[in-house]
Amino acid sequence: MTLEAEQSTAFGRRFVTPLYTGSVLNPINSSIIATALVPIADAMHTSVGHASVLVSSLYLACVVAQPTAGKLSEVFGPRKVFVAGILLVLAGGIAGGVGRNLTALVVARVLIGIGTSAGYPSAMVLLRRRAEWAGVGEPPGKVLGGLAIAGMATIAIGPPIGGLLVGAFGWRSAFLANVPVALVALAVAVCWLPRDRPAEARRVRVVAARVDVAGIVGFGGAMTALVVFLMSLADPTWSALAVAVVLAAALVWWELRAATPFFDVRQLVSNSALTRTYLRNGLTQLCTYTVLYGIIQWLEAGPGYSAEVAGLILVPMGALSAIVSGPISRRNLVLGPLVVAALCMLVATVGCCSSSATARWSWPSR
Asked: How does DSSP classify residue 365?
């Protein structure tokens, strides 16, 4: 049997479908909520800036939960972590759908953030172990590219779907939309994903050695304090910045001495290529999510576009990303796409700033 035939057999539709379905839970929550922030702010009688805590709370949960989910997948088994994450998303969707205040919605978003964080790392563990089982060395590029394309496609269709849902059924639909998607993901995961190795279920004590709880707490605390400071830039909360700096310094001190660090400082210092990759990816995501959240809120709160129209305006960004991801991943292109992407973001940023400066005088304040 050829290598291509072995990969086709080992990574068939039944195996990859649950992984793709679980992996789209995070981008679907990122994109759909963007069209609901202004209606939520109106319903809760608060500012759009305060409502944006629904965005930061999910991502704070993600930055802590995603690497933790990867370690837990190694210890308890990726299928268990994958299914547990879907159940948390289901619970968060229901809780947000019936929430009566901003605090309840934040709790729902945290549950969703933790749940969606389990999808990608557990999927990667499943893919790696599947490759080892099939004797093909590593997962095929088309499968890894498929995970990226699934996320991009979801971001492409998320804003218009979110706009239509919010326009037709109200902002609660941005949370309740998780329910059917999570149920489908749960069904295909339970039916089609291979069971974890029996020995993994008994290795609970390994958690203490593999998961750096102090590092997780320190990292989460530092990031939370930093976000609190950034959200108060109009009237800076300097004490939050001081807490962030102190916790960050304590985190670095601890991680340099931890046997299995949550935040591997030594690797970041010694591996400059990896550090540059993280930095480059972080800046790219900053630009992407500024557009995803900032422009949609700007369109709804400034000129007063409806959620449906604001969502449709972002379709080209996600659609183009989904189209170009496929050929780039298949050809293993790196430098060229990165340069082109950076130039495109620069041109688009200048264009957005120019449009805002030109049109702002004619828009009523809100």
From this structure: P
